[in-house]
């Protein structure tokens, strides 16, 4: 019997978890929303928002929620998703799509440790390091 993944990245959004999951799963192969449960009428969170969801990107599982509590914190680049891209087309595409309406922290370029690397915060505030291995 196969054992489930033991450590899973968990992302907490404030109302746009489903939009983020849909966007992310459109970017990668072997990706999709695996399970999603929503708040119903009279429950703590706004009806229809994500109570808990599991999705996969390139076969890697992630979990997320829509927090109904307004926190004084959000995502930070101190924790980022690092993606080794297969080729230049992939790193260019991912950089373009993830940076749209987001913030470029390091533009695509050669930084010595990689022939092509870029770092962005996407429009949801999640930080991505995109790398083209040598």
What does this structure look like?
With 134 residues, the protein is α/β, with parallel strands linked by helices. The chain has helices at residues 17-27, 88-99, and strands at 9-13, 32-38, 50-57, 60-66, 80-84, 103-109, 116-121, 127-132. The model has no long low-confidence stretch (mean pLDDT 95). InterPro entries: 3_dmu_93_MTrfase (IPR009725), Glyas_Bleomycin-R_OHBP_Dase (IPR029068), PhnB-like (IPR028973).
Short overview:
17% of the residues lie in helices and 38% in strands. It has 134 residues and is an alpha/beta fold.
Mean pLDDT: 95
Please provide the count of β strands.
8
Please summarize the sheet with the most strands. Answer: 4 strands, mixed
Highest CATH level, the class of the largest domain: Alpha Beta
Model regions low in confidence, pLDDT < 50 over at least 5 residues: none
- What is the gyration radius calculated from CA atoms? 16 Å
Secondary-structure content class: alpha/beta
Question: What percent of residues adopt helix (DSSP H or I)?
Answer: 10-25%
What's the total helix number? 2
What is the CATH third-level topology name of the largest domain?
Answer: Signal recognition particle alu RNA binding heterodimer, srp9/1
Helix/strand order, N-terminal first: EHEEEEHEEE
Number of domains: 2
Strand residue percentage: 35-45%
Q: In the CATH classification, which architecture of the largest domain applies?
A: 2-Layer Sandwich
How far is the first residue's CA from the last residue's CA? Answer: 37 Å
Strand order of the largest sheet: 1-4-3-2
Domain PhnB-like: 5-130
InterPro entries: 3_dmu_93_MTrfase, Glyas_Bleomycin-R_OHBP_Dase, PhnB-like
Protein name: VOC family protein
């Amino acid at each position: 019997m196969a054992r489930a993944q033991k450590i899973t990245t968990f992302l907490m959004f404030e109302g746009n978890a489903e939009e983020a999951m849909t966007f992310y799963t459109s970017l990668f192969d072997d990706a999709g929303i695996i399970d999603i449960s929503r708040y119903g009428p009279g429950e703590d969170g706004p009806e229809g928002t994500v109570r808990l969801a599991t999705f996969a990107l390139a076969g890697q599982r992630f979990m997320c929620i829509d927090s109904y509590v307004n926190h004084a914190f959000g995502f930070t680049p101190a924790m980022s998703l690092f993606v080794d891209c297969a080729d230049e087309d992939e790193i260019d595409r991912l950089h373009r799509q993830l940076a749209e309406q987001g913030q470029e922290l390091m533009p695509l370029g050669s930084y010595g440790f990689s022939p092509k690397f870029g770092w962005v915060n996407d429009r949801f505030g999640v930080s991505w390091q995109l790398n083209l291995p040598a």
